[in-house]
């Protein structure tokens, strides 16, 4: 007889109600996975808070009943379904608020493991971060496309041959030209969004200054990325980008704390 089976032998036939509550302020995420796991365990679910619910210490997010073994499985599994996603949603909401009115996107969920990719993507969305540079159809030319073509204008020209009407997003690192020259070449070749992906505020500043001085600022959207932190957001926003791409500052957020308690 296994230890848990032995311990619960006198409790056979009994059921127990339990509640999961938040222990800190935040935004709830991971509800779909929470419901899926609860069904797998076989719990009698009484209530579940909605995805995106605002949390304060003591907020009830889940109420259910089950036998002793079900309750212990719930404690092992359910809080893990919402802890990390809720932490990510909370961080995303904080960053979106601080960056307003500049649009925040988070594409770094693509770099995480397949097992949690969907949950973290949804968490960033729940927190208000966008997933795409534009709602219009676009072609994204990242640094490796540009490296393989040798220069940004050649890569953009090839993309335009596929669909001349589609928006082109060019990731700029200033590798084959100075960052301003690369931005200028991208605009002349037909890019619609310039992603200054160096993490260097001075690069964003000089590209924006050139765009304004040379009359092409109104023709493009200007994005910035590269290890963006919460502490940098104010300085980035003052430089006037249209979009800020935030990765680790959202996805590396700590777990939001929850507790599961048997009641009655």
TrEMBL record:
Gene3D superfamilies attached to this UniProt entry: Aldolase class I, Quinolinate phosphoribosyl transferase, N-terminal domain
Q: Which residues form the Quinolinate phosphoribosyl transferase C-terminal domain?
A: 88-261
Q: For this UniProt record, give its keywords in alphabetical order, as a comma-separated list.
A: Glycosyltransferase, Transferase
| InterPro entries associated with the record | Aldolase_TIM, NadC/ModD, Nicotinate_pribotase-like_C, Quinolinate_PRibosylTase_N_sf, Quinolinate_PRibosylTrfase_C, Quinolinate_PRibosylTrfase_N
**Reactions mediated catalytically:** nicotinate beta-D-ribonucleotide + CO2 + diphosphate = quinolinate + 5-phospho-alpha-D-ribose 1-diphosphate + 2 H(+)
- List the Pfam families: QRPTase_C, QRPTase_N
Its EC number(s) = 2.4.2.19
Which Gene Ontology MF annotations are present? nicotinate-nucleotide diphosphorylase (carboxylating) activity
The enzyme class is: transferase
Q: Where is the Quinolinate phosphoribosyl transferase N-terminal domain?
A: 18-85
Q: Which family does it belong to?
A: Belongs to the NadC/ModD family.
Q: What is this protein called?
A: Nicotinate-nucleotide pyrophosphorylase [carboxylating]
Species name = Sporomusa acidovorans (strain ATCC 49682 / DSM 3132 / Mol)
């Amino acid at each position: 007889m296994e230890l848990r089976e032995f311990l619960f032998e006198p409790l056979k036939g009994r059921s127990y109600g339990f509640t999961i509550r938040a222990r800190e302020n935040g935004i709830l995420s991971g509800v779909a996975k929470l419901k899926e796991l609860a069904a797998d365990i076989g719990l009698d679910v009484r209530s579940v808070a909605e995805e995106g619910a605002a949390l304060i210490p003591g907020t009830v997010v889940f109420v259910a009943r089950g036998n002793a073994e079900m309750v212990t499985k719930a404690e092992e599994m359910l809080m893990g379904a919402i802890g990390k996603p809720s932490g990510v949603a909370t961080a995303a909401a904080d960053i979106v608020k601080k960056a307003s009115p500049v649009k925040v996107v988070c594409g770094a969920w693509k770099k995480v493991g397949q097992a949690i990719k969907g949950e973290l993507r949804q968490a960033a969305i729940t927190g208000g971060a966008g997933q795409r540079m534009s709602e219009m159809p676009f072609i994204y030319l990242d640094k490796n496309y540009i490296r393989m073509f040798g220069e940004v204008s050649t890569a953009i020209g090839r993309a335009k041959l596929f669909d001349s009407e589609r928006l082109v997003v060019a990731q700029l690192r200033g590798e084959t030209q100075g960052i301003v020259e690369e931005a200028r070449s991208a605009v002349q070749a037909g890019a619609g969004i310039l992603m200054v992906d160096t993490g260097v505020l001075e690069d964003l500043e000089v590209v924006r200054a050139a765009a304004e001085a040379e009359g092409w600022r109104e023709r493009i959207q200007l994005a910035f990325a590269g290890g963006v932190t919460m502490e940098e957001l104010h300085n980035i926003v003052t430089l006037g980008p249209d979009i800020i791409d935030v990765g680790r500052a959202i996805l590396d957020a700590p777990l939001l704390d929850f507790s599961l308690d048997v009641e009655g």
